[in-house]
Here is the input.
Amino acid sequence: MARVVHVVALVVVTRAVALAGCGPYGTTVRSDTDTPDAVEDVPGPADVAGEAMPDAPDATPDAGPDGPSAPDAPDAPPPGPAIGDACRDNPDCGQFPAICALNFPGGYCTTPCGGTDCPSGSFCALTASGRYCYATCASASDCRPGYACATKNPRQCLPTGNVPMYGACQDAGQCASALCVTPLCGTSPCAGGICTEACSPTGALTCEPPGRCFRFGSQHFCARACTSAADCAEPGGTGGALQTCRPGDPGSFCSP
Here is the structure.
């Protein structure tokens, strides 16, 4: 009786061991005595070394092969009309009080002045109509076509007329002095004008010899002084105009 009991116990132990080792379909079953992992596995550097990481966004946009380029500077405004420029009407010369002097060949941009208030590159000249700015120059290349750098003080761009000082004229473009004035013969204009320059009775603006400063109306201009018609031989004016000795202020002057 005791031997039988021993065999049954052995069978029971063996069966318990078999159940602990295998689960359904041959899988391993964790026993109740297994200890679970405390945390999940964390990948280390070796786990991610072969994986591509996403690119970080650029801090600044690409500058290009030659570096960053600055924005284009705005175009400079075109230069405005200058003293001595050609013109056809006053607006061609800019804002008031600038004017277009049409008695110059091709027009001449200028502006009234008071002595020292002309733009750079010009000076305040006394003319038949008052004081106006004239373009200054150092050589003919500083003047526009049809104008020369006259040997005055200061030198200035004037029409390339060939009628000499005190010669007969009809307009300023014929005169080397760029000024043609028709004086009064008595109370009426003389038969023609003379090439001249403005002058001052005090001697501040003197006249080229054999000229003298005469008063014509409210202005003073240079003319050849004379005592008789023999002193007024034509110096090379237009159309062979003859000049005669006419009474003036002060003394007599030569005029057509």
